[in-house]
Amino acid sequence: FAGAIDTYTIEAMMQDGKALQSGTSHFLGQNFAKAFDVTFVNKENQPEYVWATSWGVSTRLMGALIMTHSDDNGLVLPPHIAPIQVVIVPIYKNSDQLAEISAHVDPIINRLREMGISVKYDDAENRRPGFKFADYELKGVPVRLAVGARDIEEGTVEVMRRDTLEKHSTPLEGIAEYVAKLLEEIQQNIYDKALKLRESMTRPVDTWEQFKEEIEKGGFLLAHWDGTTETEEKIKEETKATIRCIPFDGDTTPGTCVYTGKPSARRVIFARNY
User: Fold this and answer.
1) Which of 23, 202, 213, 267 is the most buried (most CB within 10 A)?
2) What's the CATH class of domain 202-271?
3) What is the CATH number of domain 86-197?
């Protein structure tokens, strides 16, 4: 960041192989204070330029969340941050069936809420179950339970998990504990899927020809760079790729710049970005 002493960034990998700077933190030192004459009176009663930081963690994190996990059916939300973690949809033909289903569902709702799980019971009569199913898939609700009169008779409930769209039946008894465990499983699965994608699209390149070929495939390229702004600008002009960050745990083995062949102290991450 221009004018900063240190800049830290979170670089995320989107499903299409492009990078997204999801958040930044800058230590500005006294540079901006001097430029704008921002001072305070210190304990010696003398004016002193303030020390400043800048934090850029905002709504772009929501964009990163959406683009990282979602699919063609809509949002896929990690359970830990989903506003509605479980939706229950009754399947009924008349008001008597609805009343019977509601009587069986109420204790489940109460138990889920006691466990700190946010749940919605959608018994609205102006929308058909199929519409509700599609609507909650679009909104990314992690778990959907569908309960009908036959399910009540058989003591089962249909469970659908949003991350994989898999459906199965499970006993109504103990369903709250089952759902709590399933939510954690979904949380981990979503994380593992995103991590696997990022790892599969992160690879080293050692020559300029290899760089130009691999950047067309997207992802993070680990390449040596000679440390000059001029080289980064030339690489950007020719490939539209920029240095996204210098990772803390990156490869610090010395090498030669992928573009100029000059000495390089370590590899940095190049990518095309949003």
Assistant:
1) 267
2) alpha beta
3) 3.40.50.800
